[in-house]
TrEMBL record:
Name by which UniProt lists this protein: Acyl-CoA reductase
Species: Klenkia brasiliensis
GO molecular function terms noted in the UniProt entry: oxidoreductase activity, acting on the aldehyde or oxo group of donors, NAD or NADP as acceptor
KW Oxidoreductase (keyword) present: yes
Top-level taxonomic group: Bacteria
InterPro entries: Ald_DH/histidinol_DH, Ald_DH_C, Ald_DH_N, Aldehyde_DH_dom
Domain Aldehyde dehydrogenase residues, every copy: 51-488
Length: 517
């Protein structure tokens, strides 16, 4: 495939996709900007900042950033809506949420194409993000009566501050469950991407009478309002440790219910293992979306005796990865390409990743594989500044950022160990993680080792993920603060139970974990 043979598939051009979104919800879109959803109506407030696509560096639309005062007005309106919604019968809440889900299902392809342009998701993964959100909420609609029991809504709306990588299956999914539980919701659009998709989704939610608020703005400007406002009943945050730490500091003296999901260096340990064909399939899937997932595995901790066999399995996988423009085809009637990943979220992030790789090598890391953008699938002349070819580094130095933190991109690090104690120490390098896995032929030994891995979920000869439907989700150590979520835990996190109830989660005064994770 040569670059000159590729072009945008007709109908997937940004102007066409944005036009269809605006036709579905004209109230939410201006001629050159998105609107903010406040007190049930879309308003052209805020100073617009131009959104740029990581796919090809093109300008998308304006993201209007509201002031703290405008955000405060929106929170007060959401609190008023919350009081009414909290008394709405569960059957009516279920009917409205279900209607919103079906409206989004009708718009599914356009929601997915918006994600492709805004955050660079390949078509298959963008569709999966939308589908997981909608299918998950359908399950909650069926289960919500039993989960609620005698539980009641919180005293105020749930404030949601989420990262850009999963706008539908994390943010919208959580909001719809919060609504089912009787809470109004406030969401801040991620500044880096996903705002247009979220605007369309929230327009369809608002049309069904759901009390939703959608605001755009800088985290520093709006944090005091969205985190500390006394009207807010709970805060749900998904993001990195730096921003999460600032949010946590803002919550210290409020006593507010919270769910803070933060990053961790998820590790895959390999010890006394031989099923290399089985591992190869997991390695391939692990590169989906360029490892820009909170449950990606960017660290492999490998027993020295197995390094040669591991590399014989790993290197062909990383060399076979397909990446490039998510919407480029050779012929007009071709299906959209099946890619492992597209760009990272921005040209700035791509530069940061390349600098981290260079720094790690300067500090002693050995490059096992460094791909080239020449191997990517691109349209001739397109801007590729937000793309990063896959890379794998052996033994990054202790002073390297890649040794202790998650790269959030297609960069793996491999650490060699000689003892079980060293294996565990290297797997626990980031003071807590969301997931981890152990590849070991002796499952009894694997389960024994797993008990000492500081991750919320530990897979034995398989990866772990956020999970769907009834599966709980959380983190250990610094990767999570506050209530755990997933299944009935998500409903418990955003409702009031019996007096003195000890919720599952990580809190200053206690930690409580569900039995089966």
């Amino acid at each position: 495939m040569t670059a000159t043979s590729l072009h945008l598939k007709p109908g997937t051009e940004w102007a066409a996709v944005l036009g269809r979104a605006a036709d579905r919800a004209p109230e939410a879109f201006g001629t050159d900007r998105l609107h903010n959803l406040v007190d049930g109506s879309w308003r052209p407030i805020g100073d617009p900042e131009t959104l740029v696509s990581p796919v090809d560096g093109s300008k998308l639309t304006g993201l209007p950033k509201v002031s703290a005062g405008e955000a405060q007005h929106a929170v007060l309106a959401a609190a008023a809506a919350h009081r009414e919604w909290a008394t709405t019968p569960v059957a009516e809440r279920k009917a409205r949420v279900s209607a919103a889900v079906e409206a989004m299902a009708d718009a599914r392809d356009d929601l997915a194409l918006l994600l492709a342009w805004e955050i660079g998701k390949p078509w298959r993964l963008a569709c999966a993000d939308v589908d997981r959100a909608l299918d998950g909420v359908r399950w909650y609609v069926e289960e919500i009566d039993g989960m609620l029991g005698d539980r009641t809504p919180l005293d105020g709306p749930v404030s949601n501050i989420a990262s850009w990588n999963y706008p539908m299956s994390v943010l919208v999914h959580a909001e719809l469950v919060q609504l089912l539980a009787g809470n109004a919701v406030v969401a801040k659009t991620p500044s880096q991407g996903g705002a247009t998709c979220l605007t369309l989704a929230h327009a369809l939610m608002a049309r069904e009478g759901l009390p939703v608020t959608l605001l755009s703005g800088g985290g520093a400007e709006l944090s005091s309002v969205l985190v500390r406002s006394p009207e807010v009943g709970a805060l749900a945050f998904v993001g990195g440790r730096s921003n999460g730490g600032k949010v946590a500091a803002g919550l210290l003296d409020t006593g507010k219910r919270h769910m803070l999901e933060q990053e961790g260096l998820n590790a895959w340990g390999i010890w006394e293992f031989s099923d290399w064909d089985g591992l190869a399939a997991h390695l391939k899937k692990g590169f989906e979306y360029g490892k820009q997932r909170c449950t990606a595995y960017p660290r492999y901790v490998v027993q020295r005796e197995l390094v040669d066999q591991f590399l014989a399995t790993y290197l062909p996988v990383v060399q076979s990865l397909r990446f490039g423009h998510p919407l480029a085809v050779e012929h007009d009637d071709d299906e959209l390409p099946v890619l492992d990943f597209g760009p990272v979220i921005s040209a700035g992030k791509a530069t940061e990743l390349r600098e981290r790789v260079s720094d790690a090598m300067h500090r002693g890391a050995v490059p096992l594989w460094r791909g080239s953008l020449a191997d990517g699938r691109f349209i001739a002349g397109q801007d590729t500044s937000a793309y990063v070819a896959p890379a794998a580094l052996l033994s990054p130095g202790g002073a390297s950022a890649l040794m202790h933190s998650e790269p959030f991109g297609p960069v793996d690090t491999i650490v060699v160990v000689d003892s079980e104690a060293e294996l565990l120490a290297q797997m626990n390098a980031s003071n807590g993680a969301l997931v981890a896995s152990l590849a070991c032929d002796d499952e009894e030994k694997a389960h024994r080792l797993a008990r000492e891995v500081q991750a919320f979920k530990v897979g034995i000869n398989k990866p772990r993920s956020r999970g769907d439907r009834a599966e709980p989700f959380g983190g250990r150590g610094a990767s999570w603060l506050g209530c755990f979520v997933g299944g009935e835990l998500l409903v418990q996190a955003v409702t009031q139970g019996p007096e003195g109830e000890l919720l599952y989660g990580n809190f200053p005064e206690h930690s409580r974990y569900p039995a089966a994770i």
